[in-house]
Amino acid sequence: MPKKVTILDVAQFSNVTKSTVSRVINDSPLVNERTKQRVWQAIKELGYTPNRTARSLALGKNHVIGMVVSEQQISDVVLNPFFPTVLKGITTVANQQGYNILLLSLSGQDAQSYTEILQRHTVDGFLILGGPSDVNLGRDLDRMKVPYVFIGKHDPEAQHSFVSTDNEEGGYIAGKHLIDLGHRNIRLMVGEVKGSILVHNVERIAGFRRALGEAGIPFEDRLVVKMPTDMENSYYFLKTYLERDRPSGLILSNEVTSMSCLNLLLDEGIAVPDEISLVSFGDPQFFRNTRPSLTTVSQSVEWLGRTAMEMLLKRVTGGEWLPPKIIRKPEIVLRGSTKKCGV
Amino acid sequence: MPKKVTILDVAQFSNVTKSTVSRVINDSPLVNERTKQRVWQAIKELGYTPNRTARSLALGKNHVIGMVVSEQQISDVVLNPFFPTVLKGITTVANQQGYNILLLSLSGQDAQSYTEILQRHTVDGFLILGGPSDVNLGRDLDRMKVPYVFIGKHDPEAQHSFVSTDNEEGGYIAGKHLIDLGHRNIRLMVGEVKGSILVHNVERIAGFRRALGEAGIPFEDRLVVKMPTDMENSYYFLKTYLERDRPSGLILSNEVTSMSCLNLLLDEGIAVPDEISLVSFGDPQFFRNTRPSLTTVSQSVEWLGRTAMEMLLKRVTGGEWLPPKIIRKPEIVLRGSTKKCGV
DNA sequence: TTGTAAGCGTTATCAG
DNA sequence: CTGATAACGCTTACAA
């Protein structure tokens, strides 16, 4: 540790009191220009830097935002740009406004273990990646007046504070795009975690269904296929799946499953888009760099991060009011993985 | 904010003083079992959780490690698994030992702006990703007794605290692998940032040179090619480069340039490994999922993160002594991107 | 076994 | 404009 020089040292060195030094470093107008100079001089001389912890204690604020990430999420990061991309958005805003990010990782899954973490650390607010682990979490946090914003997944019914993409619309756009290209035999692939599918996919299914309906294609359960979410298992799942069912269009729900699908099709010699058209949800920048590049329902993950942080800081600093939830319409980025059916 | 219930509230509620409550929550042995029960009861009842800031101030320790990341690094994260992977290693250890990670991002590049950041935040130590931005940084930090560990890049001559891979050996292994396969016309591609190449590549060049020497192949400057490091520019650089020079073996220095190379070769219809063999430095897991999968000189990035954190915490907690630098020998993972020359 | 009281380094409220 | 002095919430000798 650097030898600690405190505000008192500076005060004595420049023949004033702590109060004055405090005023100087906080750029208070009510301090004589000359003493201000003297104090700054002393600060330089002694190499003083204010102790953030002490300041936090006195002010009751840290200028630190806790970012809650599940172990799971930080685990399968290779090839999954969600985490780093959202982080980029978050830090951009944080830096602008002089806030720092404290990484908080979860062990348990229940609201209890959540709130425990939440309170143990003195941070000014929470950004919760991947949405609430527990349905009641939002309600509990609201009740305890804990400032927070969920990023990504969310319950569309809930009144909780979150930022997300309009997944229903996304599912609709993806389906419509393929239908417009003449595809009739389309599958929506959704990740299955512990036997259930995530809320954002539930919404996408609804949108997909709407697109089918508009085109007069009857919806059947088999058009939505549950699959594993990791690289390894999704690859083998798709391998066996495509052996007995060969749609002309496939909608994938994220970067990882899209990559394994792309790899599998290449390995099996199935041409994209000639034999099968692919649409993926996810980061458009990422899918630009795959081969073939993929038609993408854009998630704008960086925007998610930026917006969530802005919402949270507005709330924390008690500034302007912002609507509790912000949902962005997705856009489709057309690339080389889709073409007219059967041409 | 949750209504703050302090140690004093608990004390009054359970008819003891702050001191006793403090002892209870710190699990001190010198407190009566029955009052201990009473106090815990009160804690539960009131929903008390200790304030970390206050505790930090009193103890002079935070249980927080600052992770210094350059803006640049957090910017080009898509497709670059270094950051998330090293983070995984770091958080694994941090969680085990009850530490948290504070993300610190750099604006300037000089040691001055570095140390300023370093001191403004009260953290117990620093993990500096990508190595020192300034040659003197390590020395300065050492002099100021700031606990730190550099991760990744480093000056091999320096006495500073860092963990890294043996890049000279890596360059040697990569070169030798291709040479053993009969290749004679090999290029080592190294990233160029602001006109100069990074230290870890300087070492790789040395190793590459050693491999050539052993095989009796004369070294020439043109065998080492400087190129841009981002997706976009590296793609176009390679495009023009390969028009006028067509080696039989290429060594790429990271994930991003490898991807753009792979994409380019595919786009141009140049077969890997039939027409050209590829070796890359980087994360073996990542390169397993490219097509073709790439022969990789493994960086074990997660190991870097884990080890760095362990070193730092040993130093912070003043436990056992650990050598200031730890360097790990790389391994080569053989995959489908290399084959015998001309067969 | 428990209480008292002095810090830890700031900020903030009064006076002067 | 500047100085005392009391917070902020917790730990820790030192007493009792």
UniProtKB/TrEMBL annotation, chains A, B:
<dbReference type="InterPro" id="IPR046335">
    <property type="entry name" value="LacI/GalR-like_sensor"/>
</dbReference>
<feature type="domain" description="HTH lacI-type">
    <location>
        <begin position="5"/>
        <end position="59"/>
    </location>
</feature>
<keyword id="KW-0238">DNA-binding</keyword>
<protein>
    <submittedName>
        <fullName>LacI family DNA-binding transcriptional regulator</fullName>
    </submittedName>
</protein>
<keyword id="KW-0804">Transcription</keyword>
<dbReference type="InterPro" id="IPR028082">
    <property type="entry name" value="Peripla_BP_I"/>
</dbReference>
<dbReference type="InterPro" id="IPR000843">
    <property type="entry name" value="HTH_LacI"/>
</dbReference>
<dbReference type="GO" id="GO:0003677">
    <property type="term" value="F:DNA binding"/>
</dbReference>
<dbReference type="Pfam" id="PF00356">
    <property type="entry name" value="LacI"/>
</dbReference>
<dbReference type="InterPro" id="IPR010982">
    <property type="entry name" value="Lambda_DNA-bd_dom_sf"/>
</dbReference>
<dbReference type="Pfam" id="PF13377">
    <property type="entry name" value="Peripla_BP_3"/>
</dbReference>
<keyword id="KW-0805">Transcription regulation</keyword>
<keyword id="KW-0678">Repressor</keyword>
